[in-house]
Amino acid sequence: MTLNDVSLIGKKVLVGIIVTIVPFIIIFGGLWLGRKLLERAPKAKTSQIVQPQNSNP
Prior knowledge:
Blueprint: H1 3-39
């Protein structure tokens, strides 16, 4: 095995690791970001029913 062979195997292993990790980062990063955005969403869209107050004594 020559130095070129070892270098080529090392590069292939590195590319394989990157190709495996990048989709996980995209998927889990998107899920995390979506959760954060949904938690920060304004909750004023729900309307509350206000009961009229009786002024009878």
